[in-house]
Automatic annotation (TrEMBL):
Documented EC number(s): 3.1.1.17
Annotated protein name in UniProt: Regucalcin
Membrane-spanning parts: none
Cofactor(s) the protein needs: Mn(2+); Zn(2+); Ca(2+); Mg(2+)
Listed InterPro entries: 6-blade_b-propeller_TolB-like (IPR011042), Regucalcin (IPR008367), SGL (IPR013658), SMP-30 (IPR005511)
Subcellular location, record wording: Cytoplasm
Origin species: Muricoprocola aceti
Length: 280
């Protein structure tokens, strides 16, 4: 495993690979920054935003959609501009969290309580956003995180970190999710599931917060197939990237001892699945 940064960041998250420009984007939620990493020259650039930025998805033209507490922003990283395209419906004390686009270009975006105290359980929600409008809201989540789609089986996989499991849903053509059941039970694993991505074989790669690892699991059987050790405790997100999409990029967050908040990369023996863009 190779460490690609020396940021000592606070809460690195939301990594996403742009295969057209061969750049990796990720955020530091609490430092209110978007980063752009170019592996070809190992350059790292940043852009500051006015509030917590919790999630990024790509558009067809290579620009970004970013989720801030007050709404969605269209971000042109090269020009360092951010223009609001959708107002938020979040109450005070709630922010957006992880999100990704489905095969139809709809953005699925979670929300969670900023203070994880006695009021946090079930205070979050999962939003389906289409054409800069909220289409559906699913409530009752605590920390909605990793998302992935198996298009061949019309399945949607989703993590609510507090439950220590990956759930599976049936997804209809118009974006409704039904038939929820547990796909992978991670209660016996070290750490709790956070961000997640799918490889080309349909397996899920799951960042384990507090667990010093990324695990690969088969959502059909629930079996853990592989574990990748990570030097930092709070492993927050992972995605496939590189020219052949056989590199696993991993973000971490700072722990109570001050360690973490970095970007890592690991060569793996499988390629990444398709990444969908907003508005496809």
């Amino acid at each position: 495993m190779e460490k690609m940064t020396d940021l000592h960041g606070r809460l690195l998250e939301g990594c996403i690979w742009d295969e057209c420009s061969e750049k990796l984007y990720f955020v530091d939620i609490e430092c209110r920054k978007i980063y752009c990493f170019r592996p070809d020259c190992e350059s790292l650039n940043q852009m500051e935003l006015p509030d917590y930025v919790s999630d990024l998805v790509l558009k067809k033209d290579g620009t970004l959609i970013a989720a801030l507490p007050d709404g969605l922003y269209h971000v042109d990283f090269d020009k360092r501009t951010a223009d609001k395209v959708m107002e938020s419906c979040l109450p005070d004390g709630i922010r957006y969290n992880d999100g990704k686009c489905d095969p139809k270009g709809r953005l699925w975006l979670g929300s969670m309580a900023m203070a994880q105290d006695e009021s946090a359980p079930h205070a979050g929600a999962l939003f389906c956003i289409e054409k800069d409008q909220i289409k559906t809201i699913y409530s009752g989540f605590t920390i909605p995180n990793g998302l992935a789609w198996d298009t061949k089986k019309a399945l949607f996989y989703h993590v609510d970190t507090a439950t220590d499991k990956v759930d599976r849903y049936r997804m209809t053509e118009d974006g409704q999710i039904t038939e929820k059941r547990t796909a992978i039970d991670l209660k016996k694993e070290k750490g709790s599931p956070d961000g997640m991505c799918m490889d080309s074989e349909g397996h899920l790669w799951i960042a384990m917060w507090g667990g010093y690892q990324v695990i690969c699991a088969d959502p059909t059987t629930g079996e853990v197939l592989e574990r990748i050790p990570v030097p930092d405790a709070n492993v927050s997100c992972c995605c496939f990237g590189g020219k052949s999409k056989a590199q696993l990029y991993i973000t971490t967050a700072r722990d109570d001892t001050g360690n973490g908040g970095e970007l890592y990369v690991e060569e793996v023996q499988v390629t990444g699945g398709e990444v969908y863009r907003y508005g496809d």
